[in-house]
Amino acid sequence: MFDSDSPNSDLLRSILEPLLEDFQYWFQRSRLLLETEPLPFLNAEKRADLLARVAIAQQEVSTAQMLFKATNGQVGIETSIMKPWHDLVAECWQVAVRFRMQESGEKM
Length: 108
Fold this sequence. Notes:
Blueprint lengths: L6 H30 L7 H27 L8 H26 L4
Helix pairs in contact: 1-2, 1-3
């Protein structure tokens, strides 16, 4: 049986818990941007696709957080599961940067 008070559990908790919270934070910000701001550089289909992928990722992260809490931090998450979340956050950051540049009148 896994010892939830072991140093490995503490390490997992200290890394994974804030990482999952960061994913939630960035997905929420991205969702707000996609739902509320004019993004003329992003056509309606691409915007809807990105918004749908963000919503799905939020649900996946929420599920991972619930499992992590339900097991008292005894489960990890495979890197192969988190990589698409990371890639999606990076994609959303690119949209946000482009939006900010548009708002400030800069050209890409």
